[in-house]
Amino acid sequence: MEKAMERQRIVREHLQPWLSSSSHTLHASSLSASACLAKDSAAYQRTSQYGDDVVIVAAQRTALCKAKRGSFKDTYPDQLLASVLRALIEKTNVNPSEVGDIVVGTVLGPGSQRASECRMAAFYAGFPETVPIRTVNRQCSSGLQAVADVAAAIKAGFYDIGIGAALESMTTSPRGWKGSVNPKVKKFEQAQSCLLPMGITSENVAHRFAVSREEQDQAAVDSHRKASSATASGKFKDEIVPAITKVVDPKTSDEKRITVSVDDGIRPNTTLSGLEKLKPVFKKDGTTTAGNSSQLSDGAGAVLLMRRNVAVQKGLPILGVFRTFAAVGVDPAIMGVGPAVAIPAAVKAAGLELDDIDLFEINEAFASQFVYCRNKLGLDPEKVNVNGGAIAIGHPLGATGARCVATLLHEMKRRGKDCRFGVVSMCIGSGMGAAAVFERGNSVEVEGQ
């Protein structure tokens, strides 16, 4: 009997946000009208009674630095991850032992080695041995997938506090197929397309959807211009964790320690005339160049999530609320179209419409696919990548999702009441797309006010 009563109590706690103060029942239609019609601003009212919301209380990243040439070229991957994990704890004063799990999005590192590196990084950052850690790989969306996995686990009740992190060192882990390919691939066109160089898929998008070279180069100019402006105005300071690392002089082999706190791939003097001089990289008569493609980069990021009532109990400011996540499949030959499919799916799942979204962070893997997705969805350019994107800032594959979450949420915070909903999205190699919807943290009404 006691066990049965305890089960009833737990169920009632889960249902509490939807229970009326005057009645213990609420008809399903009432729930639909009051809590689910997010696209109706009058109906979409969430209050502090939604204690089981999954919220973000901190989102940090390292600077993103050019692979093989940038400031992190001599930095161990685990050191990059340790710096952002440590920053979350220092920023929030959360006891590391309370973290239920750390999930790290990463792509290129050898599986077992990278898993061990991540575990080592947690120890460097001060986490006790009782806190578990694992990796996840959904290619370019791995960082966002890590955040989504942690959000889902918190929502499911597996734990109350978790970290979605991300790591990529493209200096130490260059891309490349290892081993032989199953001959069966020749019988399946879509399987063959999974092996296409990403630059060729960019060319396919540009050709199939008539995205001109000029449009692509202009997108690259805009990315560098906006990223340069954001850097100059100090916008990225809230999200970037200064990382102490070493650099080695290639001529003398002398080492010196430096603090890196600025993305080193942004080129403020990028011009359309300058980009026009660059030759196509992947096809002789193509339009994809080094100038209108994302930069290969090194970097890491981390997002601290928890149940809302836990954050309130700890007195932590809420940076954002995790609303929905969607991953979709598309034709591998034009994998860059992924965001054009994933974004509507995630937005619909949140009960919203595209017009309800105030800011978008869409990864600029290639200008061709970025321009296509933006135009296909009819997005206002003034809402998209307002601080630049991967063409300027960089694209450390597995870490990009966490970088975008940090950039989005800090920009939403700066904009305040004029910015309620934001979306992070990216295309994914082998033909997929992913997107997540976030709500600005302090946009929720407080009961009694």
TrEMBL record:
Domain named Thiolase N-terminal: residues: 54-308
Q: Which GO terms describe its cellular component?
A: peroxisome
Where does this protein reside within or beyond the cell? Peroxisome
Supply the EC number(s). Answer: 2.3.1.16
Q: Which GO terms describe its biological process?
A: fatty acid biosynthetic process; oxylipin biosynthetic process
**Which positions are catalytic residues?**
140 (acyl-thioester intermediate), 395 (proton acceptor), 427 (proton acceptor)
Alphabetically ordered keywords of this record: Acyltransferase, Fatty acid biosynthesis, Fatty acid metabolism, Lipid biosynthesis, Lipid metabolism, Oxylipin biosynthesis, Peroxisome, Transferase, Transit peptide
Concerning Pfam families, the annotation shows: Thiolase_C, Thiolase_N
Q: In which pathway does it act?
A: Lipid metabolism; fatty acid metabolism
Q: Care to name a GO molecular-function term for this sequence?
A: acetyl-CoA C-acyltransferase activity
Q: Which residues form the signal peptide?
A: none
Q: What highest taxon heads this organism's lineage? A: Eukaryota
Residue span, Thiolase C-terminal domain:
318-440
Q: Which NCBIfam families match?
A: AcCoA-C-Actrans
For this chain, the family text in UniProt reads: Belongs to the thiolase-like superfamily. Thiolase family.
What protein name applies here? Answer: acetyl-CoA C-acyltransferase
- Please name the source species: Cardamine amara subsp. amara
Q: What is the lineage of its organism?
A: Eukaryota, Viridiplantae, Streptophyta, Embryophyta, Tracheophyta
